[in-house]
Structures are given as structure tokens and as C-alpha cells.
Amino acid sequence: MTYLLKHTMLVVLALSVVMLAGYASAQSPADVSGTWTGSTSRGASTITLVLQQQGPNVSGTLAGAGTTVDGPISGTVDQNTINLRNDRGSTPTLNVKGDEITGMLSGDAVTLRRAKK
Which of 38, 51, 55, 74 is least crowded, fewest Cβ atoms below 10 Å from its Cβ? Predict the structure, then answer.
């Protein structure tokens, strides 16, 4: 192979690696739209989370988790992480894996599952 051909192939390979790295870092946020139900590790009550999603932004309502976090919520989804906030300043961070959300809510471990459509 000539020097020019080798150099061209290296440039193309390098650009391909850069493009793939950019694609991996720009993945779409997880789809969290829908109704999610579950309970905390104490299992005292049923928690219901209803979310609507527009790109990375979410809004909805939370019920059954306690007076400090129940009510309207909003937040963002970054890949498989949901960062929520409410009017009282509560900011739980939850993890999404398919049709399951896990994390901490009001100091308790919580597991929520999406209701089938």
C-alpha cells in the first residue's frame, strides 16, 4: 500500500471511532411515560407514579409515598436515571431498567413497575 492510501485509511478509521463515541454519549433517554405502581421496602402502602414525557423532560403525579413527596412532580431523564422534584423541594433520583424503576424515596427503597398498556 502506498503512504497516501494508508494515511487515508487511518483518517477514516479515526473519524469512525469519534462518530461512534459521539453516538454512544448522545443516547436517547429511557421512555418512562405511563403509570407505575409499587411500594417501598416497608410495604405499608401502594405508590402510584404517573408520568408524561417529552424528550428528556417529565411531569406527572406521585401518590402514596407520603405527604412530603406526594403531588405534582417534574424532572428530567438522563439515559436510565430519572431526577424528580416537587413543590416541597424533594429530589429523588431513580433508576430505570425496562419496565422497572428502583431507588430511594423518602428514605426508603422503592420498586415500581409499569402498568401494561
Answer: 55
Q: Scan for cell 477514516, then name that residue.
A: 12
pLDDT tens for 6-35 read: 656 655 555 555 555 554 445 788 999 999
Which SS3 state, helix, strand or coil, does residue 5 take?
A: helix
Q: Which fold has domain 34-114?
A: Lipocalin (2.40.128)
- Of 45, 53, 100, the closest CA to residue 69 belongs to 45
E strand or H helix that includes residue 14? helix 3-25
Set of cell numbers at residue 92:
429523588
- Domain-wise residue ranges, the chain: 34-114
